[in-house]
C-alpha cells in the first residue's frame, strides 16, 4: 500500500477547487476507501478525501517531518535533553 495510515502528505492542488483550501495543506492519512480516495486528517481537526487520480499531492520526506516536529518543540518552549 503506497499510503498506509499515518503517512504524512502535502496537497499541491485539488481537482474540485474546494473553497478555503490553503495552497500548501498537510495532513495524515487515516485510510483509503474503495473509490480509491485517500482520507486525511488535517491539523485543524477537519478531514479531506483526496482523489488519487485527480488531485495533486505528495508524501512528505522524513526530513520534512523531522523539521516540523523540531519547530513545534521549539515553539512550545520544551527543551529535551
List the uncertain runs: none
User: In CATH's first tier, which class applies?
Assistant: Mainly Beta
- Biggest β-sheet strands, sense, barrel: 5 strands, antiparallel
Mean pLDDT: 82
In the CATH hierarchy, the architecture is: Roll
Secondary-structure-derived class: alpha+beta
- Topology as H/E string? EEEEEH
Percent range for helical residues? 10-25%
CATH topology descriptor: SH3 type barrels
> Globular, elongated, flat, extended or rod-shaped: what is the shape?
globular
Count of separate structural domains: 1
Total E-strand runs = 5
How far from one another are the termini?
A: 36 Å
Strand content: 35-45%
Radius of gyration in whole Å, from Cα? Answer: 14 Å
Q: Identify the strand order in the major beta sheet.
A: 4-3-2-1-5
Instruction: Please give the count of helices.
Output: 1
Task: Describe what you observe in this structure.
- This protein is α+β, with helices and mostly antiparallel strands and 81 residues long.
- The protein has one domain: SH3 type barrels (Roll).
- The protein has one helix at 62-76; strands at 8-13, 25-32, 37-42, 47-51, 56-59.
- It has a five-stranded antiparallel sheet, with no helix packed on it.
- The chain is globular.
- The model has no long low-confidence stretch (mean pLDDT 82).
Keywords:
1 helix, single chain, 5 strands, about 80 residues, alpha+beta, 5-stranded antiparallel sheet, about 20% helix
Q: What's this model, at a glance?
A:
The protein is α+β, with helices and mostly antiparallel strands. It has one helix at residues 62-76; strands at 8-13, 25-32, 37-42, 47-51, 56-59.
Amino acid at each position: 500500500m503506497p499510503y498506509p495510515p499515518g503517512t504524512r502528505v502535502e496537497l499541491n492542488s485539488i481537482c474540485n477547487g474546494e473553497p478555503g483550501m490553503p495552497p500548501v495543506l498537510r495532513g495524515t492519512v487515516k485510510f483509503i476507501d474503495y473509490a480509491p480516495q485517500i482520507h486525511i486528517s488535517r491539523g485543524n481537526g477537519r478531514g479531506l478525501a483526496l482523489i488519487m487520480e485527480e488531485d495533486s499531492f505528495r508524501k512528505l520526506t522524513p526530513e520534512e517531518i523531522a523539521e516540523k516536529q523540531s519547530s513545534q518543540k521549539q515553539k512550545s518552549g520544551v527543551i529535551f535533553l
